[in-house]
Amino acid sequence: MGRQVAIEAIAGAVSGNILYKGDYEHVNGVVASGLMSDVLVSEEEGILLVSNLSTPQVVRTADMVGAYAILITNGKMLSDDMKELAEELAITLLHTDMSMFDVCYKLGKILYER
Amino acid sequence: MLRALPIGTDKATTAVMEIILRLKIKDAMTTDLKTARKEDSLRFIQQLMKNSYVTGVPIVENERIVGIVTVNHIMNALDKGYIHEPAEKYMGRALVVLEDDMPLSFAITYFNKYSYHRFPVIDKEQHLVGILTSRDILTTLLQELNAEMEELEGKIDMKIAAERGCTLNVITKDFAVNKFDFENAGRASFELKKILKERKVSQKIIRRASVASYELEINLVIHSDGGRILFTVDDNKITIETMDNGPGIPDVSVVLEEGYSTANEWIRSLGFGAGMGLANTRRVSDEFDIVSEMGKGTTVLSVINMEDKNEDIAIG
Question: Which of residues 232-271 of B touch A (CB under 8 A)?
Fold first, then answer.
């Protein structure tokens, strides 16, 4: 994809909250999955990782692939462990009540229809 | 009753015996001596003990030891009211001394044989040159053991490195990984990533190494009964190795197929167990090997060269 999108714009599009601001203001693409192995196969750099899964391992996985931000969908509760780890690894953490499908639709619009 | 110090070939290992035989009493003794003369009053000696934190003061005449005054003597003096009298009449004269050239093992047997807390040390000319307490022995032994262990650890690192054929700037790191410990899964891989970042390894290589290491680490958490993950990084390559305690894989060729998984619903609900782990690891590795024995365990090896294989293709 290689298209820069501001994290603020993403938060706006999915009516999400930014729970923690990491090192970057933007992302270069999106990978959406509830399966961490799928994320690990991805090859884009500096992505937004969208997941309906809310575990510290999502943050670990994001770190391993050098993701800039994480968006947790479906209003899943975020544990303190997860927030702490995101802060430790300086990865932006977002949260939305929208479903994974709706999030992907909204993000698709920003990414592909500009 | 004091416990006997474990010394002697039947009680100590060869390595420990070697250390205490190699070390001489002069290597362990305190040479900063607090001494007094036999004309000095017991009160003076008491003050000396108090100010210099010692519990025994040798009484010296012409560089030779002629007696010793300990806390016991001082207590008796206070008790019986002769604290202002000279030391000569009351000091201990039944002296047990050690020679500075004797091995430390000899001194340890003395601590077993006698109930004294300290032994004056003399040289060949019978001059008082030091004093040896059990604290001195303890300090020296710990120092020596630390040095010995450091050397051994160094040898192990070198051996691992040599086995892998790497020589330059080697770092090895070893982590224990526990079964179902999702809380800590990824910590080892994070450490590897940190090492690679510090070494200014390229982003692409870091990513490949991170993916391989993380998949293997997660595999240990999900599928093994616990094990270890070992990293070796040198200037040429990154070696990631996992070793587990079982249960072993019945058919290794099957687990390498994408999508094959034995993970249960619970593991899948955590985002793992898609059957991609080993296939992913192999995909990002320049060298990959898996060996498994049922009932024993599985070892997986992943090597990632520091030069990007894609770049090689581009050049070739």
Answer: 270-271
